[in-house]
Amino acid sequence: MKLTLKIWRQNQGAATGAIKEYPIDGVSSDMSFLEMLDLLNENLVHAGEEPVAFDSDCREGICGMCSLMINGQAHGPEVTTTCQLHMRSFKDGDTITIEPWRSSVFPIVKDLVVDRSAFDRIIQNGGYISVNTGSAPEANAAPVPRPKAQRSFNTATCIGCGACVAACPNGSASLFLGAKITHLGELPQGQPERYERVTSMVAQHDHEGFGGCTNIGECASACPKEIPLDVIAQLNKDLRTAIKQGH
Amino acid sequence: MASSTKDLSGLYATNEASVQKSDDAAGYYTLGENVVDPSAPTGVIADRWTNTKFTNALVNPANRRKLNVIIVGTGLAGGAAAATLGEAGYNVKVFCYQDSPRRAHSIAAQGGINAAKNYKEDGDSVYRLFYDTVKGGDYRARESNVYRLAQESVNIIDQCVAQGVPFAREYGGLLDNRSFGGVQVSRTFYARGQTGQQLLLGAYQALERQVAAGTVEQFTRHEMLEVVIVDGKARGIITRDMVTGAIDTHTADVVVLASGGYSNVYYLSTNAMGSNVTAAWRAHRKGAYMANPCYTQIHPTCIPVTGAHQSKLTLMSESLRNDGRVWVPKKAEDCDKHPSDIAEDDRDYFLERIYPSFGNLVPRDIASRAAKYMCDEGRGVGPQIEEPDGQGGKRMMRRGVYLDLTAAIARLGKDKIEEKYDNLLDMYARITGEDPYQVPMRIYPAVHYVMGGLWVGYDLQTNIEGLYCTGEANFSDHGANRLGASALMQGLSDGYFVLPNTIRDYLAKGPFEEISEDHPAVLQARQEVEERVAKFLSIQGTQTAESFHKQLGHIMWEYCGMERTEEGLKTAIAKIRELKRSFWSDLKVLGKGEELNQDLEKAGRVIDFIELGELMCIDALNRRESCGGHFRAESQTPEGEALRHDDEFAYVAAWGWGGDEGGAQTPVLHKEDLIYTAIEMKQRSYK
User: EC number(s) in its UniProt entry (chain A) (predicted)?
Assistant: First the structure.
C-alpha cells in the first residue's frame, strides 16, 4: 500500500507544533499501525530526518501505553488499541492524519507523546484497597457472588490508556474513574473505604483539570476495553451516597 | 554420584560435585573458583524458610526510615517489593522506563498463577508444587528456593484477593482453578486471560498507596544506566531522565534490580518493545555474575510470524491447551487444504499420540519441540514463509500447527469458551483476521521468557554486596525450563514475601556511611554514562540501532534458538563479534541527548543485547547436554527427547565479566553445584 501520512510534529518544549506530510510506500496490510510508523521512522532516519516520537510498549493491547488520534478518532477506526489496529483497516492511497491525545491535562512531551501522570495521581488518591502485606485473611473466607465478581472483572480491565479523555468533548476522565470505583465497589474487600474513595478520587480528578461528565458517551465508544457507560452512573450514585453520608 | 555424608535433613545428597568432561567452549572462557551461596539454608527442607525468617536480623521500625532502598523496575517483583518495603517504613525510590508503573510487562501475562491451595482436593500440596516445579525445570533449579516458592504461593492468593484482584469464581462465590502444562492437578488461579494485568494492578495500587503515604518516591520515564559501587558494595545508580536527558545520581543503602527478562535479545519475542537487559548487564559488567544465560523458554502457543515487517510476537495462553487439541495433517499433501476439508482420520493429534498421560498439557519445552519437528517434516500449516536453509541458502516452509477448539465448543458451547478465554480469541482474530470460533487457530513456538539472569543467593543478593535481584531478572527458581503460571508466582513471592524478609538482614547492618554525590566512585559511574551517550551520538554511521537489533535477532534465533549445535554456536559467536565491531563504527543516531530520543535509548539497549548474545552462545556452547529450554542436538535420547548429563552439568553456570579484548569477551565460569537432598534427579518423562 501507498499512503500519505499527516503527522503532528512538535519539538520538545515548544509551545506549538504543526502537521507535516509524509508519503510512505511498501505498507503491508498485515502490519500493525505502529509497525507502519516503525517503517516510516526507518525511512526518516535514513533520509537524515529525526524519527517521529510515539509511545508503545507491550504491543499486544494490554499495557495501555500506545495512544494516537487517528483521523480524529482515539486509537483509530476500530475499537481497539493502536498496537492492535492493523493496516488492513485502511485502503491503498488513503491519507491518514495522526495527532497526539487531545487534553490539556495530558501535555505534549514531544510529537505524539503525552504525559498521563494525572491518572497515577488519581489512583494515589484512593484507587486501592488498604491491605498491609501479610495481614490478608484466607482467600476463600469472603465469597464473592459470581455476577458481582464478573462485573468487577469487566471494569477492572481498564488499561489506563486515556482514550476516554481524548475522545470526550469535555475532557472528562469519568470513565476511567468510574471503572476503578466499580471494580473495587463490587467486592466485599472494597466496602470499608468505598465512600472515602469516591470523594477523594473525584476531588483529585477535578483538581487535575479534567472536565465534568455530560453523558455524551464518546468515552465508552472509544474505549478499547469496552468499559460500559454505566460505570459513570455507578460513580455518580456512590458520590451522592458519600455526600449524603457526610464524607 | 551419591555422597556418603547425610544432609541435616537426614537424606543423602544426590549430587555433590560435578566434573565436566567435555569442553566445547575451550578457548572462549576461563575457569574461576566455584561459587557457593553464603546464604544457603540447611536443615529439613520444609523448615528452611521459617528458620531463615527467624534468624535474619530485625530492623527497629524507628530506624527503618533512616534506611534508603532503590528498586529498579515496577513489575510484579519490583512493584510488590517497593510497596512492601515502603509499607514497612523504609525510604524507597522506585524507577521505571514507562510513563507509569502500571505498564510493566507483567501486565501482559495471560494464563494464571499457581498456588498449592488444594481447593480441589485432587492431591495437590506444597510438596507436589515443589516437586512439579523442580521436575519441570529439568533439575536445574535450586531446591531450597523452589520449596520456599511453593510455600509462599498460598499467601500470594490471600494477599491478592484482599487487594481486590477479581479472580475467576465458581457460582458459590469461591475461587475457581484450571490446569496448566506439566501438571496433573488443577491449581492455577486466573482472571480470564488477563491474570497478569489484574495481579499487576493489585501491586500497582498498593504501590501508589505508598507513594501517597510518602514512603515511596516514584520516577517514571527513567532508565538505569549504571550501578554505583563503593568499597565493593552497591550504593546507588545512575539514571537518565528519558524526557530531559538529565543524567542523575541516586544513592542508597541497598539497590534492588527487578528489571525483568531479556528475551528481546532475539528481536522478535513476546516481550514488550522496551523490555531490555541494560540494568542487569550494567551490573554484570561491574562484577555481578550472570547465571545460566542460555536457558530461554520457547513458548509453544504463539501466533506465527507473518512477514519481515513484524516488530513482536503475541502469545496465546497455554491454558487454551486445556480445551484445544493440537494437530497437523498426517499427509504433507494436505497442508494447503482448508482444515475442515481434512478428515478426522487424516489428522495427527501428535501430543496426545506421543505423550498419552499428559496429552496436550505437556510442558512448554516438549510441546515446542514437537511442533517444530512436525513442521520440519513438512507437515506444518499456514502460509509458506522464507527462512534460511542452514546451508547458506533460503527455503520456503510452513511454520504453524493447529490449536483446535472445535470439539470444546461443541462440548461446552461457545458462551462457555468465550467466558474462559474471550480476550485471547479476540486478540487472535484481530491480529490474524481469522475467527478462531470458526477456523482452528494456527500457533507456533516463540521466544517468551528467560530462566537465566543475575546470580543470587537464597537471600536474593547477587555476589555484589548490597545488590539484590528479584523476579525474572534473577536465575534461581525455574531451572532450565519454567512451568506455566509459575512466573507470576515467583514475581509476587519475591516481592511481597521473600525480599522484605531477607533484605532486612542486610539493612540491619546499617546505618551505612553516607555517600556524597562527588564521591570518586559516583563521579566515575556518571562519567561512564555520559561518555557512552555522547559516543552513540558521535558515530554518525549508516545503520540504525533497529537494524543492528534485527541482525542480532536473526543470528540468535538461527543458532541459539530451539536447537543448538557446537558448530552453529561457534558460527554465531563469530557473527556477533563482527556485528559488535560494525555497531561501534557504523551506528546512526539522530537528535540530541538532552531530550526525548527514542533511537538513543534503543542504541544503548541494543549494544547490551549484542554483548549478552555473545555470552548466551558461549554458555550454550559450554553446556553439552540438553535440558529444558536448552536443546543441544548432540545430546538426545533415541526418541529425540532432551538428554541431561547430571554427572557433568548438575551445576549453575555463573559467569563473571572477563573483559572485552578486541571485541571478544572472555568470561569467567564459576560453577555452583546443584545439590538435591529432598528430590532425586530423574530423566523427565511425560509419556
Answer: 1.3.5.1
The domain spans of chain A are 3-110, 116-244
Banded model confidence at residue B15, pLDDT cuts 50, 70, 90: low
Whether B543 and chain A come into contact, CB under 8 Å, resolves to no
Find cell 516438549 and name the residue: B366
Q: Which three cell numbers stand for residue B267?
A: 528481536
Cα gap B153→B497, rounded to integer Å? 10
Who's near B90: CB < 8 A, 6+ residues apart? B64, B65, B67, B68, B69, B215, B507
Q: Which of B166, B174, B315 sits opposite A143 (nearest CB)?
A: B174
Kindly report the three-state secondary structure assignment for every residue of B569-584. Answer: HHHHHHHHHHHHHHHH
Which chain A positions have a beta carbon within 8 Å of B503's beta carbon? none
Backbone angles phi, psi at B305, to 5 degrees: -65, 140
Asked if B272 reaches chain A (Cβ–Cβ under 8 Å), the answer is yes
Q: For residue A118, which of A195, A201, A57, A185 has the smallest C-alpha distance?
A: A201
Do A3-110 and A116-244 show the same overall fold? no
State the average pLDDT over residues B17-23.
77
Counted across chains A and B, CB pairs separated by less than 8 A come out at 211
Cα separation, B623 vs B625, whole angstroms = 6
CB B252 within 8 A of CB B235: yes
**Set of chain B residues whose Cβ sits within 8 Å of the Cβ of A77:** none
Q: Are A38 and B311 in contact (CB < 8 Å)?
A: yes
Which residues from chain B sit within 8 angstroms of residue A122, using beta carbons? none
Q: Which of A39, A67, A83, A140 to mutate to test the interface with B (most CBs of B within 10 A)?
A: A140
**Residue B102 and residue A160: Cβ atoms within 8 Å?**
yes
Query: Catalytic positions of B, please?
Result: 364
Distance from CA of B81 to the nearest CA of A (A): 10
- Touching check for B384 and chain A: CB below 8 Å? no
pLDDT band at A52 (very low <50, low <70, confident <90, very high): very high
CB contact under 8 A, A189 and B311: no
CATH entry 1.10.3720.10 includes domain B299-448: no
Tell me where in chain B the CATH 1.20.58.100 domain(s) lie. 520-652
**Residue B217 gets which letter from DSSP?**
E
Cβ atoms of B113 and B492 closer than 8 Å: yes
A12: cell is 520538545
Q: Which residue has the cell 545460566?
A: B292
Q: Has residue B390 got a pLDDT over 80? A: no
* Alpha carbon distance A246, B686 (integer Å): 62
* A187-226 per-residue burial string, b: 16 or more CB within 10 A, e: under 16: bebbeebbbebbbbbbebbeebebbebeeeebbbebbbbe
Q: Are strands B664-665 and B325-329 parallel, antiparallel or unpaired?
A: unpaired
Structural element, H or E, at residue A97: strand A95-99
On the question of pLDDT at B3 being above 50, the answer is no
Please name which of B374, B369, B334, B331 lies closest in space to residue B350, comparing C-alpha atoms: B374
CATH of domain A3-110: 3.10.20.30
Across the interface, which of B107, B174, B599 has its CB nearest the CB of A58? B107
Q: Which fold has domain B520-652?
A: Methane Monooxygenase Hydroxylase; Chain G, domain 1 (1.20.58)
Q: Which of A113, A120, A155, A184 to mutate to test the interface with B (most CBs of B within 10 A)?
A: A120
Q: B137: part of which helix (H) or strand (E)?
A: none
Residue B1, pLDDT score = 38
Contact B310/A at CB under 8 A: yes
Does 1.10.10.10 match the CATH number of domain A116-244?
Answer: no
Residues B602-655: pLDDT tens digits? Answer: 999 999 999 999 999 999 999 999 999 999 999 999 988 999 999 999 999 999
